[in-house]
Structures are given as C-alpha cells and as structure tokens.
C-alpha cells in the first residue's frame, strides 16, 4: 500500500517540522505533545498515533539532528590537522543554521541527563565524535603536525574545547562572532601543535 | 514581626530543598510548580504564594546554585597559573556534589536559551567567570608562567575547555573519572604554557 505509506511519511515530516518550530521557540522544556499538536493545528490524539510519548518526540528530534548533520557535505580539507580544523569549523555555531542546531543539541542535554536511554544515546554520540577526532589526531601526529601524546586524551581535550566554545557562543553571540570563533579555534590548534 | 519573617524564610528553604530534589530526579524539564508541590506534600496554591510562576522557580534554583558556589571556601593556591588551576579544579565534576551541581547548571541551559532574562543572567555569569580567569591569566603572564597572548582570548579558551570537559564527564563519568579530568586539565594548561 504505497499510497498509505507515503501519507504516513508525509505526516511524520509535518510533525518533524512542527517539532523544530517548538524547539526553536521554547526549547526541550517546552516540547510537549500538546505544543506540537497546537503548532500543527492537529489534535493531541492524532499526534500520539505517531509519537506515543514525550520521550518518543525527544528521541525523534535528536534523530532529525543526526540526519541533518550526516546530510551535510564535508568541507574539503587535507588530512590531519587540516581535516580536524574543518570538522570543528563545521560544528561551531558560526552560521545561523549551525547556531540553531547547536541550540537544540545544548537544549537536549537537560532531558538527556534525566533519562538513562537518552543519556546513553548522547554518550554514544560524543564517543563517536571523539573517535573521529582521534583519527584526525593520529594522522596529524604521523604527519608531524602534532607532537606525540595520547590520542585519546588529545581527542577528549579537543572535544572539550569545541563543546565549551559552542555553549559560550550561544549565550554571548556578540562576544563570539564567527571570526572570533575561528581565531580561538586556530589559537587552540596552534597551542596543541606547539607553535605560538 | 520577626517570627512571621522566620516562618517565611523556613518555608522558602523547604521549597528550595524540594526544588533540588525535583531537579536531581527530572532536570529543568521536569521542574513544574505541581512537581515541587507534590514533592513537598503541599498544594500548588501554597507554592505560588512563594513563586508565582515556573520562571520564578527556575530563577530561584539558579540563585541557589550561585549561593552554593559562593559559599564554598577557595582552595588555597599560589597566584597565577596555580590559582587558575585551583579555580578550574573546583568547577570540574570531580566529586558527587560538584557533579550534581554541574548537572543542574548544564540542565539549566535549555530553559535559559528559551528565555531572554534567564539567558542574560547566564551570559553575565559566564562573562564574570571569564573575567576571573582573565585576572589569573594576566598574573600568570606577568610571572612568566604563560606566554604573552590576548588575555581575553586565553580566558575564553580556558572557559571553553572547562565547560566542554564538564559536559563530557557528565555523560560519560566512567570515561572521565576525577583523575582523568585532572590529567586533561594539567595537559591543557601545559600546552597553554608551552611545556609539553
């Protein structure tokens, strides 16, 4: 029954768009079945057909973010330190869209820390991100761009720097315009490389 | 009427304790007047006498955290890099209490990013924290412990590192036990200083 399946998918896309609008306006704390239903002009009953609980809505919102990120083309970059820099520039909130995505990621931490399943999902996401950073670090070390040091620790440090810069830039966008974000990132990578 | 004032203060302390318990169990997303009233065995009506809206509750919870932090004695430390290290060790989630406090700070970001007044409060808190870091950085530079570099940028970078490490440690406490947090911090300060 392809037609019915298509309707279902189209309706899930409508729901997704409404979830985005609610998150942008009110954050995860304001993400309720009722708020999404109101945003769509639908009933809560219809919505629960697609998402039985608030937790399903939150999980769906996070899946959307994963898909958005995975769907973005990689910035062309050389291997090693250049690839690491490109990866981090893609994460930082230096465009309105990246700021909106990051605002939702940061906003999801409260709900995730209160729910073991969501927390495990986030822990896995950040472990995966550290693993990608670690691969770039190892390549950079093999190219002599970074000094030898435990790549796991370097990856954890790099991710710390990026996450904390995101949080500060979201709260103080005027103090952290895109060019300062880039300057701070380049300064950090230079200290890691030992050139200052 | 000192007696009446005392009753009021005692009741506010009861409310505060209930707010803590709700936050620890459910995060800011679960912080509702009804949840706090239930936790206290009181009516929502009584609670609204002290906190007319959810926003007042959130603001009160953040004030409690500020007071807890301000009430902690400073770790004795020399000036400069040692003082910076001591300040950061006090922030990191390396004890159960520090982890609980950080969990609440991180959880508050969702609500704060959805509300201009709360966001302004957080922006001011982080600006104040960067200013304290900057003073330590300037002292460390004057002592020759850190190379000359824009102290504002160094302070923003240090705060980035600390905030991001907090977030990762909250989601993956087993991968970021206290001794690894300390090692990562010391590694970061060493790269800043240029000794590796």
TrEMBL record, chains A, B:
<dbReference type="InterPro" id="IPR050109">
    <property type="entry name" value="HTH-type_TetR-like_transc_reg"/>
</dbReference>
<feature type="DNA-binding region" description="H-T-H motif">
    <location>
        <begin position="32"/>
        <end position="51"/>
    </location>
</feature>
<dbReference type="Pfam" id="PF00440">
    <property type="entry name" value="TetR_N"/>
</dbReference>
<keyword id="KW-0238">DNA-binding</keyword>
<keyword id="KW-0678">Repressor</keyword>
<feature type="domain" description="HTH tetR-type">
    <location>
        <begin position="9"/>
        <end position="69"/>
    </location>
</feature>
<keyword id="KW-0804">Transcription</keyword>
<keyword id="KW-0805">Transcription regulation</keyword>
<dbReference type="Pfam" id="PF13977">
    <property type="entry name" value="TetR_C_6"/>
</dbReference>
<dbReference type="InterPro" id="IPR039538">
    <property type="entry name" value="BetI_C"/>
</dbReference>
<dbReference type="InterPro" id="IPR023772">
    <property type="entry name" value="DNA-bd_HTH_TetR-type_CS"/>
</dbReference>
<protein>
    <submittedName>
        <fullName>TetR/AcrR family transcriptional regulator</fullName>
    </submittedName>
</protein>
<dbReference type="InterPro" id="IPR036271">
    <property type="entry name" value="Tet_transcr_reg_TetR-rel_C_sf"/>
</dbReference>
<dbReference type="InterPro" id="IPR009057">
    <property type="entry name" value="Homeodomain-like_sf"/>
</dbReference>
<dbReference type="InterPro" id="IPR001647">
    <property type="entry name" value="HTH_TetR"/>
</dbReference>
């Amino acid at each position: 029954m392809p037609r019915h399946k298509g309707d279902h998918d189209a309706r899930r896309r409508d729901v997704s768009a409404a979830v985005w609008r609610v998150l942008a306006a009110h954050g995860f704390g304001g993400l309720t079945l009722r708020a999404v239903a109101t945003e769509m002009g639908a009933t809560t009953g219809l919505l629960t057909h697609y998402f039985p609980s608030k937790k399903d809505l939150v999980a769906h919102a996070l899946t959307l973010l994963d898909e958005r990120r995975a769907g973005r083309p990689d910035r062309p970059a050389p291997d090693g330190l250049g690839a690491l820099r490109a990866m981090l520039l893609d994460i930082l909130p230096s465009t309105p869209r990246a700021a909106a995505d990051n605002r939702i990621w940061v906003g999801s931490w409260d709900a995730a820390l209160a729910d073991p399943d969501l927390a495990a999902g986030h822990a896995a996401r950040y472990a995966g991100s550290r693993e990608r950073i670690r691969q770039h670090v190892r390549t950079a070390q093999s190219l002599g761009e970074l000094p030898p040091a435990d790549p796991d620790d370097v990856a954890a440090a790099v991710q710390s720097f990026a996450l904390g810069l995101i949080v500060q830039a979201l709260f103080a966008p005027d103090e952290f315009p895109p060019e300062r974000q880039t300057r701070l990132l380049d300064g950090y990578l230079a200290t890691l490389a030992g050139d200052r």
